[in-house]
Design goal:
The chain is built from 2 helices and 4 strands, in the order ββββαα. The chain is of the alpha+beta class and 56 residues long. A hairpin with a 4-residue loop joins strand 3 and strand 4.
């Protein structure tokens, strides 16, 4: 069985990230966009909110 390079778990299948070429499972990325969470920038929205709050 393949191993997800993001979470390190043994999984049924993996996708290859189109940005960094990491193998990720369905829990660790977006299969439709073929991006792992590291490349998706899933924290970008949170960081922007913090910056806006600090400016107010």
């Amino acid at each position: 069985m393949p191993i997800c390079e993001i979470c390190g778990m043994e999984v049924e299948s993996t996708e290859t990230c189109k940005e960094c070429e990491s193998k990720f499972c369905e829990e660790c990325g977006d299969n439709k966009q073929k991006l792992c969470y590291d490349c998706l920038g899933w924290t970008d929205g949170i960081e922007e909110d913090w910056i806006e709050e600090d400016l107010n």
